[in-house]
Amino acid sequence: MLYGPSKKLARISLLLLLLNIDTTMKNYLLGAALFATLFLCYCNPQETATAPVKAKKLIDRKKPVAAISYHYEQGKRWVNDHKGDTAFLRLVATINRADVKHIAAMDSILVPSDSIADMAYYLPFPVTVEAIKEIDKIIFFSYATQAFAAYENGEMIYTGATNMGRKKDPTPTGLFYTNWKAETTTSTFNDEWELKWNFNIENKLGVGWHQYEMPGYPASHSCLRLMEEDAKYLYEWAHQWELDKKEAVILKGTPVIVFGNYDFEGVKPWSALAANPRALDISAATIPGIVSTYLPQIIAEQDKRNKRTVEDGM
């Protein structure tokens, strides 16, 4: 793809080819055009790496037919009654921040009145956040609600449940970037634990997301546990870092913000949904306050990656 002066040179060359000019004169004019192009590139280097304008991602979301409410059911009985409905099982497991195996062992589980809507309508994060539309990709993990959401230019493209670090081994909060990943790896805490779709976000501490058992509360040794389908999606969607030959970081991966606090002494936060279905909502108006401190750094790192992408495509 051509940008700025390079495009101008191509246009001049094509014009000369179309004109009936003798070879000597044509070579002279082409040489002059090349010199002018090089001079313009030197004086205006930013013109050579202009990223194309990105179209806003349009997502067709299936909305609930009525306001969603929640009620309690006995875990094992409900799971047995819905064994053939994989989508409903996954939805209810997500609402209870657990995998299907663990909701079957619970005395009571939350069940929604409507099971046909997109996952986004059962979890706390807003579907659109105008304040982060300049960020190409970003992932948020909420400690308080044990949920995550991935966004592209302000539009949620994926969301799900998580089980983060237990009280003894809390997940660190703040801004991180995805770095290395492995489809299967072994836990540094216990070498008998196999972790699928592992994507590291804090290299020195060994913190990352991966698939592992989700009992329905923060239970990890500081990592971000996910259901396998969710872990695999983020694994394939997020960028890895790029290193040089000396293993110094050239480009960071996708930004990840972990925020909030979990009340380890209280009841599970999602229990409040039975009385108030919107009890855990994270409004679009709160996201700017979470991102603002980190925004300049996120954009700077993003610009580096976009510049590399443009240069590689030239």
Salient structural properties:
single chain; 314 residues; alpha+beta; L,D-transpeptidase catalytic domain-like; 2 domains; four-stranded mixed β-sheet; 13 strands; globular; disordered N terminus
Brief digest:
The N and C termini lie close together (5 Å).
Protein model, in words:
The chain has 314 residues and is an alpha+beta fold. It folds into two domains: 4-49; 123-266 and 281-313, L,D-transpeptidase catalytic domain-like (Beta Barrel). It contains eight helices and 13 strands. A five-stranded mixed β-sheet has the order 5-4-3-13-6, covered by helices on one side. A hairpin with a 4-residue loop joins strand 8 and strand 9. The chain is globular and about 60 Å long.
CATH evolutionary superfamily of the largest domain: L,D-transpeptidase catalytic domain-like
- Spans of at least 5 consecutive residues with low confidence: 1-21, 28-49
Strand-residue fraction? 15-25%
The CATH topology of the largest domain: L,D-transpeptidase catalytic domain-like
The radius of gyration is 25 Å
Query: What's the CATH class of the largest domain, please?
Result: Mainly Beta
Largest sheet: 5 strands, mixed
Please work out how many helical segments DSSP would assign: 8
Q: What general form does the structure show?
A: globular
Number of strand segments: 13
CATH architecture of the largest domain: Beta Barrel
- Calculate the terminal CA-CA distance, rounded to whole Å: 5 Å
Order of helices and strands: HHEHHHEEEEEEEEEHEEEHH
Q: Into which percent range does the helicity of residues fall?
A: 25-40%
Compute the number of structural domains: 2
- Sheet with most strands: strand arrangement: 5-4-3-13-6
The chain-level structural class is alpha+beta
* Overall pLDDT level: 86
